[in-house]
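To the team - glutamic acid complex, inputs and output below.
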Amino acid sequence: MTDTLAPAAQATASFLTDGATSVLDDAKRQLAAAIDILGYDDGLHAMLAVPRREMTVGVPLRRDDGTQQVFIGHRVQHSLTRGPAKGGVRYSPHVTLDEVRALAMWMTWKCALLDVPYGGAKGGVALDPAALSMSELERLTRRFTTEILPIIGPERDIPAPDIGTDERVMAWMLDTYSVASGYTVPGVVTGKPLALGGSRGRASATSRGVVHVALRALEHVAVPASGRTAAVQGFGKVGRDAAKFLTDADISVVAISDQYGAVYNGAGLNILDLADHVDKTGRVVGFSAAEALPPHELLELDVDLLVPAAVESVITVENAPRVRASVIVEGANGPTSTAADEILARNGALVVPDILANAGGVVVSYFEWVQGNQAYWWNAQDVEDRLSEKMSRAWDDVVSTARIRGLTLRAAAMVLAVERVADAHLLRGLYP
Ligand code: GLU
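Output:
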């Protein structure tokens, strides 16, 4: 009973249960399931559930027309146990503190699962980047960076791109932090432009990792190599290159959507032509070599592989019973709700969880940080080979844990990740 707890315990209890949006609820449920399997006590559970540090800031912006507006931004450091906090910054109208908390927690598990020496963090500003001019975006980014400056840094917390941000935003963050420091600090962000110490292969790394595990998963469920089909939700940082790499692997991508609509071609979409069309018009709909498809139908197509690579909570209890793909590879963070996950498992679909499937981005962020620390840059093939090696090892670890413990891939991935963070925490001990 909460009312019998001491104030500090009450605070912890409310953090675990109150005011949660569904995406944070899902993240907490996934953690609770892993804690249960691992047999950890409530104290360790609370340690892993509650973020170490959170910062919410008002970000004032002078608009081009001279008026002033204030946006709300957050940076949440869920864990610092295995190394500096690590995770992207998102610019989207849907950003909330609870969403950022969930995304930060997932970064902790992702970094642990891929065995990169980081904790987990996430940041976000609630705004529509398309509604700002380039100079407004720059001013906003510089002010947000200044506000969170006390808690970021190459050894503290290292931001990277996420939805609505890109290498140009990272360059402004790097510059703002460096001006405040009095010298250039390339390690403060990853996903930087190559000219500022970025890594080869970083921009396409998440997509490369998605396709790497998708091929392993199709093999795992014995989908024959010829005539494989896929649908990809999202044509942004992850979906666009994932669709391209899937077609390179002879998988026919029959449907693709973006935030405005979806297109379908049963004979396979020409991804390079579609990309040209999107570069010209800003959206997939209207592509002449395809027919329009109601976007919600994309998730329910009769394909071998479904790649949700857009936003959270798109596979829900409502549409999960109609999902027909045998393999679902989560290119986005949190695309499947907990209840939907159970339905998919019951229906025999293999879900490759986000913390494994989309980890290629943070893996190459780690490579970028390592290259920067050594001031020695690798060629594209080095990056690709090392990424494949890390993705393969994580895939093998998850599949063998799932087999040994009789778990879904998500539960197995969570158990491995949570155990690594808990082990590190127990070795360090609780201070004081
Ligand atoms: N935003 C990406 C993610 O969700 C990359 C994070 C990073 O590279 O730090 O994994």
